Amino acid sequence: MATNESLKDILDKAHENKSLREIIKLPPSALQGVSEGDDVLLRQAFNIKTIEDLATSKFFRWAQALVTLAPHEK
What we know:
Layout: H1 7-10, H2 20-23, H3 36-46, H4 51-56, H5 58-69
């Protein structure tokens, strides 16, 4: 079971007490602010079915890398 109190800030209430291994297998809509309609769009556009897929998607990782590096550009 996940013990981090901050999970309450990012997960829908139904999933707050699940383990991290369980959470990453849930659809993205388990995250607060992501709807089941968003699940459909993510699946259609990027073949993302789980939170793990979302976190490891090359497109999202590329975007995160660009945002991280941009402030350091000369």
